[in-house]
């Protein structure tokens, strides 16, 4: 009972920060990475790594706030990611689409990406996935709940594609304890 | 010959950050070349007047700051001291005021792009397209 009350108190405390500050902070981060690393592919990898470190921590916060139970299958996982995960942290609910036959792969379609407000990628960085931190966050978070999932961007409106689409592929359930080392 | 406008955004080092021309009549290309050099010169010469006038008022829109033969020079200075200068041969105060306001909003959005370095040339084709539309709406309309 006490833990529930503590959780409710946390939920009502809303410390708002400006979304512009958030967007500009992320933009500065990507810009610095682009300057530091030679190739777009390398920057994508670094963003994924950072995202992973965020994801493994963020999942605790999410589960503490939201009271969701264990997901029984990948379809439930998809719903939770979109309607609770994305909604809580980015204020958007991506559409779940393009399920594979065996229900082990799906896409998240983002109509609106708060990370990418005002961003225009210059022509010489065509391979950059600007929001690739999200891939890492999802991968890290899911690993902590014992699901090994491969996550990657396959389309991005910032690169001139029609939509922004993240593909998630279930690899396996992790039965063993998560190894202590992080990337 | 009326309804011609030459708009330039000038950076802190008197460098052109963006420039575009609006014209109602379709001038022949050779005449436009001559005018282009003159426009650059007049705009540059007007910068001193812009800098003087900027300190006399708290408003961003400085309206007409200088005149050269048949050309008027209007200016607008943003919070980050980017100077917008328009050369025009008809008065059109309201149109220019609205144009400056809308371009200012566009400029703010463009400068929020993490890949854009302030005071460098604005290359974005989208910015150019939108300024063209604004020009047609406020200046030539």
Strand order of the largest sheet of chain B: 2-1-5-4-3
Work out the oligomeric state of the chains in this entry. heterodimer
Shape of chain B: globular
Radius of gyration of chain B: 14 Å
Structural class of chain A: alpha+beta
Structure characterization notes:
The complex is a heterodimer of chains A (183) and B (141). Chain A has five helices and four strands, in the order ααααββαββ. With 183 residues, chain A is an alpha+beta fold. Chain A is globular and about 45 Å long. The model of chain A has no long low-confidence stretch (mean pLDDT 88). Chain B is α+β, with helices and mostly antiparallel strands. Chain B has a five-stranded antiparallel sheet with strand order 2-1-5-4-3. In chain B, strand 1 and strand 2 (16-23) form a beta hairpin. Chain B starts with a strand and ends with a helix. At the A-B interface, helix 2 of A face loops of B.
Concise summary:
The complex is a heterodimer of chains A (183) and B (141). With 183 residues, chain A is an alpha+beta fold. Chain A has helices spanning 2-12, 19-36, 40-66, 74-90, 133-144; strands at 95-97, 105-110, 147-155, 164-173.
Which helices and strands appear, and what pairs or packs with what?
The complex is a heterodimer of chains A (183) and B (141).
Chain A: H1 2-12, H2 19-36, H3 40-66, H4 74-90, E1 95-97, E2 105-110, H5 133-144, E3 147-155, E4 164-173
Antiparallel strand pairs in A: 1-2, 2-4, 3-4
Chain B: E1 4-10, E2 16-23, H1 29-54, E3 61-68, E4 71-77, E5 83-88, H2 93-111, H3 125-140
Antiparallel strand pairs in B: 1-2, 1-5, 3-4, 4-5
Which descriptors apply to this entry?
heterodimer; A: 183 residues; alpha+beta; four-stranded antiparallel β-sheet; 46% helix; globular; B: alpha+beta; five-stranded antiparallel β-sheet
């Amino acid at each position: 009972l006490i833990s529930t009350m503590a959780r409710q108190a946390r939920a009502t405390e809303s410390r708002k920060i400006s979304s512009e500050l958030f967007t500009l902070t992320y933009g500065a981060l990507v810009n610095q990475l682009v300057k530091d690393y030679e190739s777009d592919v390398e920057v994508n990898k670094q963003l994924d790594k950072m995202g992973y470190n965020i994801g493994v921590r963020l999942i605790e916060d999410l589960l503490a706030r939201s009271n969701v139970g264990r997901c029984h299958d990948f379809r439930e996982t998809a719903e939770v990611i979109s309607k609770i995960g994305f909604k809580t942290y980015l204020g958007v609910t991506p559409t779940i689409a393009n399920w594979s036959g065996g229900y082990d792969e799906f896409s998240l379609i983002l109509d609106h990406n708060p990370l990418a407000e005002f961003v225009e990628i210059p022509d010489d960085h065509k391979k950059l996935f600007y929001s690739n931190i999200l891939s890492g966050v999802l991968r890290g978070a899911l690993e902590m709940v014992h699901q090994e999932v491969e996550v990657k961007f396959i389309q991005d409106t910032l690169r001139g594609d029609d939509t922004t689409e993240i593909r998630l592929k279930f690899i396996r359930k992790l039965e063993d304890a998560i190894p202590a080392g992080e990337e | 010959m009326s309804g011609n406008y030459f708009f330039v955004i000038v950076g802190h080092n008197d460098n052109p950050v963006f420039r575009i021309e609006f014209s109602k009549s379709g001038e022949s290309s050779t005449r436009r070349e001559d005018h282009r050099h003159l426009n650059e010169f007049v705009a540059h010469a007007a910068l001193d007047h812009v800098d003087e006038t900027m300190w006399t008022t708290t408003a961003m829109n400085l309206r007409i700051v200088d005149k050269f033969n048949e050309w008027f020079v209007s200016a607008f200075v943003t919070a980050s001291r980017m100077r917008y200068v328009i050369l025009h041969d008809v008065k059109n105060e309201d149109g220019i005021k609205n144009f400056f306001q809308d371009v200012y909003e566009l400029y703010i959005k463009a400068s929020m792009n993490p890949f854009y370095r302030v005071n460098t040339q604005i290359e974005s084709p989208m910015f150019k397209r939108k300024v063209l539309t604004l020009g047609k709406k406020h200046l030539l309309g």
